[in-house]
Fold:
Amino acid sequence: MTEWLGLPPLAAAHGAQIDNLIGWIHVFMFILFVGWSAFFLFAIVRFRKARNPVADYKGVTSHRSTYMEIGVAVVEAVLLMGFAIPLWAARDNLPPAEHEALVVQVTGEQFAWNIHYPGADRTFGRTDIAKLDLQSNPLGLDRDDPAAKDDVTMVNQMYLPVNRPIIVRLRSKDVIHSFGVPEFRVKQDSVPGFTIPIWFTPNVTTADMRTRKGNPEFQYEIACAQLCGLGHARMRGVVTVQTAEEFQKWLDERAAEQAGDASDPFR
Ligand SMILES: [Cu+2]
Structure:
């Protein structure tokens, strides 16, 4: 219905609502544009110098323009209260329960995305700044913590199961970054000192999207959407959406690989 907007293909459950809102905003703004342009042209012709050599000190006495202004304000109020606020409230106030969602911690840094899965125990292991090593342990994960034993960390590689709510806890190690995946219709700044949750449900696997687009190379991409420094342009991550079974297999393999080691994410 909103194909005419030319947005990236949709791959998240809530995305149709967002596209709808964007579509309606364009329709209303087009109507406003036509209305104001017509008024502008009318004013240029009607109040031209040849017809009005002397200024009119009385001005307009009819209330028509007031009613038109009220009409515009009503349309804007409908946009805000009828569409934007309910959509925002639904997105912001109703996250899925943590036990039915997959919780992933995503930490931005100049210039990479660190992805942290809590593993089977659903508990994120302790992190310690003393253990932090930019090459081998960029999150400073303490593998001696029992909760960290099954944790999986990745750099710029995010794997997600299809059709399951994902809660991303966004954090930053240095400056403000922004986690944006256009196909999921999500974009949120990560701010140092805060943990900001966002959630979405990917509903098209990478494999399906490749078939749909006829492009075997297609990848969902995490683009850093805030200018965060000289390397901003190469701050890209890849999201691979898999079936639940594929994802579980992937996670188990990574957990086995990384268990107990110095949490080298490149292994
Ligand atoms: Cu960035």
